[in-house]
Amino acid sequence: MISDKTIERVIRFRDERNWRQFHNPKDLAVSLNLEAAELLELYQWSGTDLECRDKLPQVREELADVLSYCISLADVYGLDLDQILNEKITKNELKYPVELAYGSSAKYTKLKDAARSAKDT
User: Fold this and answer.
1) pLDDT at residue 83, rounded to an integer
2) Which residue, 10, 51, 105, 106, could crosslink 110 as a Cys pair with Cβ 3.0–4.6 Å?
3) CA pair distance 92, 95, nearest whole angstrom
């Protein structure tokens, strides 16, 4: 869980360095994706090693960078992270009902098709 204190610390870090001037939504979104790509790169060429636990320190670093940019982008728009995340979970609960999605990695559109097909047989 990210506390309000931690969010405030991220914002304070940015503001103490006068970096808000560079933190427009476009550049934050680009930076967020670049950091996410750095996180993804840790898993590149890992073969059957799906966890890469030997890279956990780097995973922590890159994940922290991703979260930091998420916090900064939400701050620019004045968004409440807890609120927007809960709103998204509510939408996903409707798109992925447990009875259709349990144990499946299918996209919600495919889940409904599969349910219809199962009823027809």
Assistant:
1) 96
2) 106
3) 5
pLDDT, tens only, 70-121: 999 999 999 999 999 999 999 999 999 999 999 999 998 898 777 676 666 6
Please give the structure tokens belonging to residue 53. 């636990």
3-state helix, strand, coil in the chain (%, to 5): 75, 0, 25
Three-class DSSP category at 14: helix
Sorted by sequence, the CB contacts under 8 Å of residue 113 that are 6+ apart come out as none
Residues in the chain, how many? 121
Sign for the pseudo-dihedral over CA of 74, 79, 82, 88: negative
- Output the six-digit token pair for 7: 């969010």
User: How much is the mean pLDDT over the chain?
Assistant: 94
Three-state secondary structure call for residue 95: helix
Q: Answer yes or no: are the C-beta atoms of 101 and 111 closer than 8 Å.
A: yes
Q: Angle at CA 40, nearest 5°, toward 38 and 43?
A: 120
